[in-house]
Amino acid sequence: MSDTKGLLIVLSGPSGVGKGTVREAIFKENPYHYVYSISATTRQMREGEVDGVDYYFVSREEFEGYIADNTLLEYAEYVNNYYGTPLAMIQKTLDSGKDVFLEIEVQGAMKVREKMPEGVFIFLAPPSLSELEKRITNRGTDSESVIIERMQKAREEIDMMQHYDYVVINEDVNRAVDQVNMIIQTEHLKVDRVVDKIKGQIHQYFQEEID
Amino acid sequence: MSDTKGLLIVLSGPSGVGKGTVREAIFKENPYHYVYSISATTRQMREGEVDGVDYYFVSREEFEGYIADNTLLEYAEYVNNYYGTPLAMIQKTLDSGKDVFLEIEVQGAMKVREKMPEGVFIFLAPPSLSELEKRITNRGTDSESVIIERMQKAREEIDMMQHYDYVVINEDVNRAVDQVNMIIQTEHLKVDRVVDKIKGQIHQYFQEEID
Questions:
Q1: ipTM, two decimals
Q2: Is A168 in Cβ contact with B205 (below 8 Å)?
Q3: Which fold has domain B8-37+98-210?
Q4: Tens digit of pLDDT for each residue in A41-87?
Q5: Which residues of A touch B182 (CB under 8 A)?
Q6: Cβ neighbours of residue A200 under 8 Å, at least 6 residues apart?
């Protein structure tokens, strides 16, 4: 594994689609397969969330310090909160041959695509927009005006889908998890990732025939 | 399924790598998933092979008739035998939304790539060339001079690997089958295949909000 670089896997999609739930299930199932890159955010911690596990929950002042110091791969302001991806660990992990898993907002994912176009970009889509509206409403964390804002935002975000590589529809969490795992395994079978290794072996075989 | 075209899946690789065994196992496991495109060949039928199932076994004269009538997607001459892919059924099956599975020689696969670049090209590679030599020898169907010719050919064929999309190493047949199935399922999740459908749904949702 360490002779090839790891893959950067980006799971993204509209707010409320269930990115966090899918990511948690992937890591519960395969705790050592991927290295999860924890984002920093200024949004309020929700019930059940843990600082340093789900996000690094930081103040606006701290976050603006990261921006000033240029230590983020990307950051975005979303419904009046900052979200961002600390850079240092990602590059180190990829170089060591391990895959890095990012779960981020669409705006941020598009910035990562610009900087690391070789990443694998997966768009998690809701089964329908009515279903998305239901999920956001049932979560009960947002006021009605925020819900309307999120739905308009979702429309814009789904328009960004074409800049991704794959679409996984989050109808059933287990199925979505299987599909994300399948995509990652398949990406590892791409010719570009193995061609040099195999050509080396061929060279060696015919070398030995001659010797 | 019928609102999108089927995928053309091409499984190929050097002679002796086990393409036929992998293809048989795929079809035994998922008999209705893919439509198998049976090739025509002028080579001798081997023990256990069935005409019209493994290949259409035809005479040189018949084959040259197909060439003259231009009814083949591709054909190639390989170790003094013709191999070719009848065209008519493939296009019809793809249009109906079903995937077509081709198992062909490398030379032929490269011609299919030129004509249908949107196909999914999978290179089945031996775990090593020494292992490939062993398999060809153990098959016991080829004379020593044919074996040497096949090994030189294999070297050239493995050089063609970079024109494929994926590499599956046939170390264990079951694992190779799983990987081929995984590649095909993943290809169905590519953005280009679903984007129009999802954008239609969004349009409909916001249309209903306005009404």
A1: 0.81
A2: no
A3: Rossmann fold (3.40.50)
A4: 999 999 999 998 888 999 999 999 999 998 899 998 888 999 999 88
A5: 182, 185-186
A6: none
